[in-house]
Amino acid sequence: MRMNRRRRGSFVVLGALILAGLGLPATVSGQTEKPVAALARVAVLGDISEVQQRILATRVESFLSDRFELISQEEYQAAEDAAFASLDLDQCTEETCIRVIQDFLQVERLFFLQVLREGSFTVLSITLYTGDTRRTVDDTCDNCSISQLYSKVEILALRLIGEEAPVAAAPEPPPAQGTLSLTGWTPDHRLSVDGRSRKPDRRGRLQLEPGTYSVLLSRKGYQSRTAKARIEGDKTTPLSARLEPVPPAPELTESGASGGLLATGIVFLAAGGVLLQSAFSAGDDAEKLAGDARDDGDRDTYKKAQAKKTEAEEAYQSAAIAALIGVALIIGYASADDGAGTALRGPDSSLLAADFPVSLDISSARVQIGWTLRW
Questions:
Q1: What is this structure's pTM?
Q2: Does the pLDDT value for residue 24 go beyond 70?
Q3: Do 151 and 228 fall into the same domain?
Q4: Which helix (H) or strand (E) holds 56?
Q5: Which residues are CB-neighbours of 319 under 8 A, at least 6 positions away?
Q6: 349 and 206 in one domain?
Q7: Per-residue pLDDT tens digits for 175-204
Q8: Bridge partner residues of 222 (DSSP)
Q9: 218 shares its domain with 263
Q10: Long-range CB contacts for residues 86-92, cutoff 8 Å, separation at least 24
Q11: Is residue 280 one of the residues assigned to a domain?
């Protein structure tokens, strides 16, 4: 087995030397201004999936290929196999094998990515072998996602080749604020800007971003007011906070009260007149019907006529009450100029209270002058 391994290794070494003799890397280098370099396979120790390994290796390869002419992985694999075959196991230290691979590939630079993980803790390192020298940069991360490791690998590569990591452009400073100055502001005022309650300082000054705002000013006992305010940076925009008082509620004047008294009296009187006329007509019809039934000896019709007559009498009483109330109210209106008034009181509660000296006694169907109106 050892003889076969050495024989196979000899052929591999021979093939690698032929490639080197043909000057393949030099030819590639001659076609571009990029320096030639090699990237070793990623070395992993710990619980790191194949997909994660490939993601990190791809990022390093993509980054280096923008700056170097990388030897293909097939060429690197052939050189690595040749190096392992040409050395005994006790001779194949890391640095020795790397140097042999560089000799086979005829490259001065060889990059080597290593990822170590223990639990949630990860160590990333990239080493650059140049001749007999080596330079390593590393970084650590705890509970990092693959996207965070992806970014860290790029930063390590930048550090390794001496480039500065890209610095994000500083955000533009926010535009200078302007001042809304409310003249006549008091602690009782309330301020709303674009529908949001805002509180200026005790002098009525409020800092706002430049723009046009809808300002609502309010105060208890005063009429609210809405205004537009255009704010410009580093400038003060004055706005008056003075509001008009809420006008007092209209009071019922003596003339208005007496006018209402007269109108109500006329309505009662007119309604009473209509009802009286209807009651008289219904009573006459019932009286005539009762007389005809009595002459004809029709007892049933006679009873119906008597019932209608009773209804007519009740309607007459109601109409009389309405008409008398109307008369009382009209008399009260006539007395209003002298500071008089009226009080209409029913059996249980007062319907209308005033002070004119008219009294109504429905039981005797008389209107009496007095201080209250009763029935």
A1: 0.37
A2: no
A3: no
A4: helix 50-65
A5: 271, 272, 273, 274, 275, 276, 278, 279
A6: no
A7: 789 999 999 999 999 999 999 999 999 999
A8: 245
A9: no
A10: 86/9, 86/13
A11: yes
206 with 151, same domain: the answer is no
What is the percent of the chain where pLDDT is above 90?
Answer: 19
Q: Give 219-258 as a DSSP string.
A: -TTB--EEEEEEE-TT-EEEEE---PBPPPPPP--HHHHH
Domain limits for position 235: 178-240
Write the DSSP string, 125-184: EEEEEETTEEEEEEEEEES--HHHHHHHHHHHHHHHTTPPPPPPPPPPPPPPPEEEEEET
Residues 150, 8 within the same domain: yes
Token output for 341: 């008034």
Sign of the Cα pseudo-torsion (70, 71, 74, 78, in order): negative
Task: Evaluate whether 332 touches 321 at the Cβ level (below 8 Å).
Answer: no
Residue reference for tokens 């119906």: 304
Treating both helix axes as pointing N-terminal to C-terminal, what angle do 299-335 and 254-296 enclose, rounded to 10 degrees? 160
Residues 367 and 301 occupy one common structural domain: yes
Q: Which of 14, 27, 133 has its CA nearest to residue 79?
A: 14
> What is the domain count for the chain?
3
Identify the CATH number of the domain in which residue 220 sits. 2.60.40.1120
What is the percent of the chain where pLDDT is above 70?
A: 72
Count of residues making up the chain: 375
Q: How many other β-carbons are positioned within 10 Å of the β-carbon of residue 266?
A: 14
Q: Which pLDDT tens digit goes with each residue over 319-350?
A: 788 788 878 777 776 665 444 444 444 444 34
Instruction: Kindly state the average pLDDT of the residues 290-311.
Output: 84
Least Cα distance to 140 among 149, 132, 131 occurs for 149
Q: pLDDT, tens digit, for every residue of 236-270? A: 999 999 999 998 876 545 555 556 667 787 877 78
What distance in Å separates the CA atoms of residue 283 and residue 305, rounded to the nearest whole number? 9
